[in-house]
Design brief:
about 400 residues; alpha+beta; Diaminopimelate Epimerase, Chain A, domain 1; 8 helices; about 35% helix; elongated; binds zinc ion
């Protein structure tokens, strides 16, 4: 079993040890008699760093613990057993992990105490972290007020800078401790106590006091498989999120000439004005396309009906659809339309043409007998008209009224 030095001192960044074993699993791994490297567990990712010996420095790229309690270090180059090495931990990465992990404890403790929610697991991600919370009566939402209350509670407790203590209690002592939840292991149970706010079994690394978590910011609380997934950032990450959000809000405020606190109202107003402007443009576009369609009307080419073969420049699908449906709402109309590279073949309900069949003969597309669409070029409309003329010689294109 490796002597885990981080148990006693989570701020031990350098240490000496001796290589006891090596193995090859997708690269070389080595084990030491003692190590301050934290192996991935309990949702907290591994440490990185290096081993120095004989003037060399070998990087550590992954750390895992096996069932026997041996900590294995994946190294860029193997180091023979018996070698004395000097280990160096990437302290910036570990402090970041301790800030997120410590904050998670405080948040889980507050959710338990204030709302009766049970935290199931921690995911410490590269950007943010999350916990899944099972709430009483299977509730899957937190109100804005509850989120604010939790954030304020945790941040107040962080500011009190209470000591964080980790130890291995005796069985008798363990039985008396007011733990937030029962330990998942029976032997070598390690307890973390953060002031009076949180006490639970945990083998992870923690800051020395709550103040060193810095701060917490809850990013979201969304339903997830019958639970609530609460995402958050702590410490330096919270500082970064605030800086980025604040900078973006400032920029957006400058663009929209409004103070940041009025951004939501300004954005809402702008959205409404944009929707109104779009409605106006669509109305105008619809009229333009409809005018084009009428300009190309020909009452002669197919007996009994008026056909329009029209090509128009690019336009949004909404005004095109509106113009088409208005045109064929009138009796006796057939329309072979090409807008940009989009074809629309449509007819009035009293016209005897299967537009679905017709469009398939000249381009890629399909639809209903009264209206079909597809991709094509203006020539497709001409070819379609030719087909109708040739194959429908002597035909009356107007359906008989029933
Ligand atoms: Zn912990």
């Amino acid at each position: 079993m490796t002597d885990r030095l981080y148990y006693d001192d989570a701020y031990l960044w350098e240490f000496d040890g001796t290589v006891t074993a090596g193995k090859e699993t997708d690269g070389p791994w080595i084990a030491l008699d003692r190590s301050a490297f934290y192996p991935t567990s309990g949702g907290q990712p591994y440490d990185t760093g290096s081993f120095c010996f004989d003037g060399k420095e070998i990087r550590v790229t992954d750390v895992e613990a096996d069932r026997e309690g041996i900590v294995w270090h994946r190294v860029e180059e193997t180091i023979p057993a018996g070698t004395s090495v000097h280990g160096k931990i990437n302290s910036e990465r570990r402090i970041d992990h301790m800030e997120q992990h410590g904050g998670e404890h405080m948040l889980a403790g507050a959710i338990w105490e204030k709302l009766g929610g049970t935290t199931i697991g921690l995911h410490l991600g590269a950007e943010d972290s999350s916990i899944d919370v099972a709430m009483p009566e299977g509730r899957t939402h937190l109100s804005e007020e509850e989120i604010r209350m939790l954030e304020e509670t945790v941040n107040d407790r962080i500011r009190r800078d209470a000591p964080i203590r980790c130890w291995f209690p005796t069985k008798e002592e363990l039985a008396e401790l007011p733990l937030r939840k029962a330990p998942t292991v029976q032997e070598h149970v390690r307890i973390v106590a953060m002031g009076d706010f949180e006490m639970v079994a945990c083998g992870g690394t923690h800051p020395a006091s709550t103040g060193r978590i810095g701060q917490i910011k809850i990013l979201s609380a969304i339903p997830s498989k019958g639970k609530i997934r609460v995402s958050f950032v702590c410490g330096k990450r919270a500082e970064r999120v605030f800086r980025e959000v604040f900078r973006s809000a400032k920029k957006a405020g400058n663009v929209m000439s409004c103070p940041t606190e009025k951004l939501a109202a300004c954005a809402g107003e702008l959205k409404a004005r944009l929707a109104e402007a779009e409605r106006k443009v669509n109305r105008f576009e619809t009229e333009r396309i409809l005018q084009d369609i009428r300009k190309n009307e020909d009452p002669e080419s197919l007996p009994g009906i008026t056909v329009s073969v029209t090509t128009a420049g690019e336009a949004d699908s909404k005004p095109v659809a509106e113009a088409v449906s208005r045109y064929v709402a009138e009796d006796g109309h057939a329309l072979l339309l090409c807008v940009g590279e989009r074809l629309t073949f449509a007819r009035s309900r009293d016209v005897d043409i299967d537009m679905n069949e017709l469009i398939k003969r000249v381009a890629r597309g399909g639809g209903r007998p009264d209206m079909a669409s597809g991709a094509g070029i203006p020539q497709c409309t001409e070819v379609a008209l030719k087909i109708l003329k040739t194959e429908g010689k002597g035909k009356n294109w107007r359906k008989k009224r029933i």
